[in-house]
């Protein structure tokens, strides 16, 4: 029985004060539904409108990649420093503690290996399983110009439609075949097609010339992949340039987990992405964190589940 004595006339109606209506902080996302925006606001930090995603999904086509042989040992300690984790459902269920609170960007296409044609993918996760895993986004590889371009765009469309029904955003990842140039013309074509087909954010590569045009012409947030392992300072410079020219963050894998000091590196990347730290300064931070880690010893590499 409700306590009727407690029902009083309210006073704070703020008559004359217009209802607050704020624009959503990510580009191209203002017209999305609440759940979709809420999930995007978990992947991207609303304070900076940027993200440092940690990509560890490489095993889905290349098996036990260097640095990912034991995700439970090498990746779990990095999770607290990432804004989001890009991962397959198999690695998530087997190797990541469910107590961690970071948003998951679930690898949702696959079906080939490095031994075969990489663009020959299919949708590899049912939307129900993405919901079951509490995914904050689903990731789909799109191979513009590849032998299976049409099929990969079809995969994107299927995942976007399924995700739209559940309020789960889709990340389109531009897979670039070896025969294609990773220049602004190609990347502009690929990223724009992904956004026009309904991707809510897009992952692509940085290019030295005219990356700003790629970012400007993509109407949704763009994050860059790290690519092959580079010396740390070079990787930090690349991240800095990308952010400076309009990227909304990084989705970096090998340049973090294949280094000598992954925890130091991910913190240096965060400094560049979220604090706009210059690459030289971020590199100094990397070196000092690396030194500290060397002093504290190998215990830093042991998963500390209380941190995530
Ligand atoms: C794309 O093929 C996958 O998502 C990769 O696993 C990821 O993009 C690789 O990230 P990185 O190039 O930074 O190692």
How would you characterize the overall build of this protein?
By secondary structure, the chain is an alpha/beta fold. It is 38% helix and 13% strand. The strands form two sheets. Strands 1-2-3-6-7-8-9-10 form an eight-stranded parallel beta barrel, surrounded by six helices. It is globular and about 70 Å long. It binds ribose-5-phosphate (R5P). The site of ribose-5-phosphate has 12 residues, from helix 10.
How many strands, which pairing sense, and closed or not: the largest β-sheet? 8 strands, parallel, barrel
Beta content comes to: 5-15%
Mean pLDDT: 93
**What order do the SSEs take from the amino end to the carboxyl end, as H and E?**
HEHHEHEEEHEHEHEHEHEHHH
Features:
two-stranded antiparallel ribbon, binds ribose-5-phosphate, alpha/beta, 308 residues
In short:
The chain is an alpha/beta fold. The protein contains twelve helices and ten strands. Helix 6 links the parallel strand 6 and strand 7 (170-174).
Topology:
Layout: H1 34-43, E1 51-55, H2 59-62, H3 71-74, E2 84-87, H4 89-95, E3 104-107, E4 109-110, E5 122-123, H5 127-132, E6 137-142, H6 149-166, E7 170-174, H7 184-196, E8 201-204, H8 211-217, E9 222-225, H9 232-244, E10 249-252, H10 254-257, H11 262-275, H12 279-296
Parallel strand pairs: 1-2, 1-10, 2-3, 3-6, 6-7, 7-8, 8-9, 9-10
Antiparallel strand pairs: 4-5
Bound molecules: ribose-5-phosphate.
